[in-house]
Design goal:
This protein has 151 residues and is of the alpha+beta class. It has 3 helices and 7 strands. Strand 3 and strand 4 form a beta hairpin.
Amino acid sequence: MQANQTASRGTLLHLTKLAVGVRDIDHLRELQAERAQRTPPLRHRTRSFPRRHQEVIDGGSMFWVINGSMLVRQRIVDIIEDRRDDGSACTGLVLDPKLVPLTGRPTKPFQGWRYLRPDEAPRDLILGRRARGEDALPPALRRELQVLCLL
């Protein structure tokens, strides 16, 4: 399902989250692969359980903000009650390991996670086909041009 489509059973919602300390998409991939191997399934732990969780797990994705830009998404498979390594209660956002690059969008810092409506989500960056226009720009250049409001 495309990131900007509506799920068949209701309103689709995505989540956004800052990837703190992550340099780029490859670094996120490395960190998640290590975490998934150490404590499967792959999940991101967070304090708050989304009230609208059914709308999120009905086809929603986690949109990761890396270095000030929303650059990649991955499907949220489930949202579960979980425990941190110290035994404290938390929420586990169970993630599909596949990372889908995005055309990107500058995003100001925020705490926790935020809901993201499909019509507000950046488009998937289609790799493997001949890129045109903005999609043909290197990610770092595209990000700089967006910050300058030139894209």
